[in-house]
TrEMBL record:
Pfam family, one: MFS_1
Keywords tagged on the record: Cell membrane, Membrane, Transmembrane, Transmembrane helix
A single cellular component GO annotation: plasma membrane
UniProt main location, coarse: membrane
Protein name per its UniProtKB record: MFS transporter
Any one Gene Ontology molecular-function term assigned to this protein's record: transmembrane transporter activity
Residue ranges of every copy of the Major facilitator superfamily (MFS) profile domain listed in the record: 8-391
PANTHER family attached to this UniProt entry: CHLORAMPHENICOL EFFLUX PUMP RV0191, PURINE EFFLUX PUMP PBUE
Transmembrane segments: 45-63, 75-94, 100-126, 133-155, 161-183, 216-237, 243-263, 284-307, 367-386
Species this chain originates from: Polaromonas eurypsychrophila
Location relative to the cell: Cell membrane
Membrane topology: Multi-pass membrane protein
Amino acid sequence: MMQHRSLTVASLGIAQTLAWASSYYLPAMLATAMARELGISTPTVFLGFSLALVVSALLGPLAGKLIDRYGGRPVLVANSFVFAAGLAGLAVAQGPVGMMLAWAVLGVAMAAGLYEAAFAALVHLYGKDARSAITGITLLAGFASTVGWPLTAWLELEWGWRAACMVWAGLHLVVALPLNLLLPASPAARAAPLEEAQTAQASSEPFSAQNASRTAMLLAFVFAVTWFISTAMAAHLPRLLQIQGVPLATALIFAGLVGPAQVAGRLLEYGLLSNVHPLMSARVAGAMHSVGAMAFLFIGVPAGAVFTVLHGAGNGVLTIAKGTLPLMLFGVKDYGARQGLLMVPARFAQALSPWLFGLALDRFGGAALWFSAALGALAFAALMALRDASSITTQRGD
C-alpha cells in the first residue's frame, strides 16, 4: 500500500513539474521571441498569459467537481491532451488572435492540471490522510522553474520558440500522459464507503452555515493575497532588489535563493511540522514575507538575502497550505469543487499582479515593498482569525 502511494506521489509530482514548467513558467523565457516574430509587443504576450489565468479561474470549480465525481485519473489523463493542444496551438500561431486562442486553451488545461486539480485527486484517493501526499508532490514540482527555465531557454536558442512549444506538447503526450495513467482509479467498490464517510462527516459538521461562509471568505482572501505576492515577486524580484541598491550580480544571486528556500520550507512542513495543525504552520509562513520585507526596508542591502529566503520559505509552506487547510477545515466532502471556488479570487489576483506591482515599482520605487508587506500582514491577520472546527466545537461547549 505504501509503495503504491509513493508511486502515486512520484508520478503526480513529475507530471506537475512538467505542467508548471510548460505553462506558468513558459512566457518568461519565450515572450520576447514570440512578440518579435508575431509582430506584437511583449506585454501583449503576457496579456495572453493573463487570459489563460482568467480562464483557469473560471473553470477551476468545474474541474474540481469532475474530480470529486470521477477521481483524478480520467480528468488528468484527458487534460494531458488539452495541454498538448494548447502548446501546439502556440507553436503554429501566426498572429495575436491565434496566440490568444492558444493561451485560452492552455487556461483550460491549467484549470484541470495544476496544483488544485492534483490536490483534489489526492484527497479523492486518500481522504483526510492526503496531507503528506500533497506535501510530496509540491516538493517535486518545486523544481519546475529550475528544470523549465533552462530547458525552455536551451530549446529556444537551438531551434526557436515554436519548436520549444512543440517539444513541451510532445512531453505531455509521452511523459505526463503515461504518468497520469499510473494514478489509481476510483473503483466502484470504494465509492459506497467513501460516500457513507462523506455523509457521516456532513451530518456531524460543527461549522454553522455562517461560520462556514466566514471561513471560506477568509481562506479565499488569504489565497488571493499570497498568490498576488508570490506572482509579483516572481515577475519583479530582481528589479526590486536592484532598486533597493543591490548590485545586479548580487540581486540575481539573492533572487536565486527563492527556489531552494521554497523547497526547504516544504521539507520543513514534511518533517518537523507534519504533526502540527496546518493552520499553525500557515500562520508562521504567512508572516514570513512581511517580516523579511520590513528587515530589508529598514536594514537595506545586507538584509536582501534574509528577505528572499523568508519570502521563499513562506511561499513554499503556503503552497501546501492551499491544499491542506481546506481539507482540515472542511473535510473531504466536495473538496475539489470547494478548492476550485476558493482559488477563483487567487487566479484573478495572479493575473493582475505583475501589472499592478510593476506600476507600483514605477511610481514608488523600492517603497512598493511596503505594499506587499502590508498585504502579507493582512493575510497573517486573516489566518489568525481562522478557527478550525474542533476549536469552534470547544468554544460552544458541545
